[in-house]
Records
---
Amino acid sequence: MVYCSHIARRSVFLVPSCFFGGICLDKNEQNKNNNIISFVPDGVFYYERALAEIQKEQFPEALKYLKRAVELNPDNHRIVMQYGIMVMEEGRFEEALDLLIQAYELEPTDREVIFYLAEIHAHLGLLREAKLFAEKYMDVAPEGELSEEAKEIIEFAEQEAAFLADDQQGDEEVHLLQEKARRLMETGEFDKAVTVLEDIVVDHPESWSSFNNLALAYFYRGETTDARELLYDVLRKDQGNVHALCNLAVFYYYEGDQEKLKPLVDLLVKIRPYQFENRYKLGATFALIGNHKEAYHWLRSIQKKGFEGDAGFFFWLAQSAFFSGHRQQAETAFSRLIEIDPSKAGLEPWIDANANQQIDESIYTQDKQFLLDKISNEYVSERMFGFFLLGKSIHKQEIVAHPAYIDVEKLEDLEKLVLASSLDYNLVEKSIADQAFNRAMQATELLYAKHNPLDEEGTHLFQMWFTLFETGIEKQYPFKNPNAIAAAVDFMFHSSRSKGITKTKLAALYGISTPTLTKYVSELFELLPNFS
């Protein structure tokens, strides 16, 4: 049971506006002798701005100013305390606990800090600590203004904790420390997270979740061997530990070790967990490594059974739903994500976050394996085609971010240019060759506009075109007229397959004359293999 506060924002008004040794900012003193003094805002400045916003009941603004005040004056226990109180009012109890503990370490005799430590522990259900701090407040301020609230906490804790076992309390403490480590990892403070987690596993050698989180922290810190060994040790002692298996899959995925990843994924597919926690872990892992059908199955299964979900849950549910063909469910899940975390707007899986444009959803740009086969093909022209399609793909961010899929250092210069173009980088024209490349890319886009969404025949057309593209660049062909180039490629490909295609129709389609089309067809034929 969670203790419910009876304070309702009263607490944020406790500190007077001038408390740094009685010193206030004096504008007249600052401007003495008419000297112009550069004013650099400090913690006092932002603290007073926060108080002003609180008086106006503009609590989001007040929270922002208090956060800045803490950043500038992290050693002032009163500012840290006030920020912790407001964070607690926002319902972010674990974060508030860290702040109030920080304030307590700075000034362990401050009666208000002691009281709010009692309150935050009560909110978190840590009733033993809540009672201890409330009793300590009564010792130092038996007639204090918060004494009645302190008595309520003591009574509440005694009633609710009468049968609380020590091992249950230990589990709660471990959970709290794990949450602290998780927040540290989210902010990139992996060294601090490792310290917290190493302390947990020493005191709780069978806390497998702590070992799993420590392995993640090692991995993010670059200690991949230690991370894997830790998970192997967990699996030796707790065979079938779902979290350890999932973490190993993530490690193999990011390291590009397909040989080890594939059999592990085959094993994960066979697992049928009952607990929501394990289903969530499986679903998120499958979504991260691109097995969206399995991801959607597990994430949707716990949602149907009443799981409310957090921001991470709805992010992965939206991803897996969209990539497995459940567009409506994806949109619903992403709408819920935006409600929880508005900063995720623009990261919808069906939208190119870089260009803020709708991405083509044809079968070949949705087919991740098709793209991977293309960009790993032995022929340069095929890889060029793959990189071009990647720019249109719903899998662009995933494939580009994966360390094993694209090794830029091993690409030919022409491939690098096509890849850069697909990622919305424009080549500055400093030479004739640069101009030729840009015009060839313009022709590529014209062809794509005419044949999107691609069918199988369309992919064959582009395979032919990128062969011409590669050869033309090698032979310093200028690609002077992109419209005519695109029309010529279209005619060359389709005239060999259909008698109904005429130069007149193709020329009109691309806005050029028939003689111009004839000229460029002749020039491009010279670039085809086995033609002199």
Note: Strands lie at 351-352, 357-358.
---
Amino acid sequence: MCIGLAAAASTHAAGVTDQMIETESSASGNVLSWGGTPQGQRYSPLKQITTANVGKMTPVWAFSFGGEKQRGQESQPVIYNGKMFVTASYSRLFALDAATGKKLWKYEHRLPEGIMPCCDVVNRGAALFDKLVIFATLDAQLVALNQDTGDLVWKTKIDDYAAGYSATAAPIIAEGLLLTGVSGGEFGVVGRVEARDPRTGKLVWTRPTVEGHMGYLWDKDGNKQENGISGTTNQSWPGDLWKTGGAATWLGGTYDRKTGLAYFGTGNPAPWNSHLRKGDNLFSCSTVAIDVKTGQIKWHYQGTPNDSWDFDGANEFITFDMDGKRVGGKADRNGFFYVIDANNGKLVNAFPFVKKITWATGVDLATGRPNFVAENRPGDPTVGDGKKGSEVFSAPGFLGGKNQMPMAYSPDTQLFYVPSNEWGMEIWNEPVAYKKGAAYLGAGFTIRPLNEDYIGSLRAMDPKTGKIVWEVKNSAPLWGGVLTTGGNLVFWGTPEGYLKAADAKTGKVVWQFQTGSGVVAPPVTWQQNGEQYVGVASGWGGAVPLWGGEVAKKVNFLEQGGMMWVFKLPKG
């Protein structure tokens, strides 16, 4: 289905352009991209709200996503021309008046019965381009709607949900292209990045993130041609396992115009049982840097070769300037923080950002490879009774030192603000065979807390030294993202329901508000009618209550929800 975009663009405000997304910050009153800007720093220069006055900040409005459909709310809103576009669980999208919370329209995607999301029915946000708002759905489709009316402009299928594919990430716009990834690594899908024309949804290129698979280009007439395979077939995968290799790009990506590269993290290789797939298993558990114009991988960096712990490398890669270089920072699920040259992928620095790591003793800065602890790899189930390999206790647990919750970087303090978790797991391997649409693990596990007093910790990290400058501990695991501002503030949420603000330099908590349900989403800030607003979605859920083992039992008192909360300073 398609409607006239020219007519739509002529009404109300001009449409969102690629240049606006790249150059505008929320100082203009808009939040035009996941991550605030394509680089994903989640930094806003706004400074009307400061450490001195944030204590006076109060709610302006709250909007319920409604119905019985609650579960995890992990969405970051985007805001343009006084309108907020926020996705909700079960593949819904709401357009709201950003100043009042009045509902303008709602789109509810019709989901089939057989969807198989691994980690709750979440959605992490939408992209804006021209007069369109575009988001992905749990049954692996992309939907583009008219920003003013909510009318469907185009809809297209990414892949087959019956084969385990889904989509939960916010798309991004780079050089006029819509970039998206795929979810479903626990079902033996093949990860990839896709570039589309955002006005039509038509493919421009695809780049698989598993070695051996062919990339493709499409011309303006829709003709498809080969664009070279990713890597070299069977170089780091045995047999045919690369054909169902996982490496899903489930968190989406970032883009840096200075390098011309899009950066996507990749998830675990499939299956979890690493004894079946001897080798590094490229490009799983990696950051891949893709030339947006050609769809070719320019470089990759692999954090966990031959992963045996479900240490997805899907976490965001945030570019910034350090010592005259354009570099990127990444807090990996495996517990290490990496600083990597954004142009060529050379490792600059690597250090732990959690207190306990058992699977490796460190990272060799010369080779970029981890120093594995051999006895901490789960045992081969074919040794012994053939039913279960030897069990090990590993930290972090498979939910990671950091998971989906995006961190923030402040050019003012030159610090990263990392929502981290301290937990471990018992894990063992089991025999497994691939079956289309079925879970493809070959492992059993139980997540356990490491400390009595806390699991989560918001940590201010110095990317040069690897030092924790300050931290704010939290009883429950942190699962929501972070925002930092020119007002010397850091905002983040907790599963206990609080949205908090701290001094970005010292970590002193200077404000908090109880939202009524757990916060597992990243906050945003924008300016409208001369006033600075702060907003966050509230609604407990995500992977922790589903996969968290002993930790899930510890937080089972937390209530689900589905609300969008907005705050500002009172007038006068």
Note: Residues 1-12 have pLDDT under 50 and may be disordered.
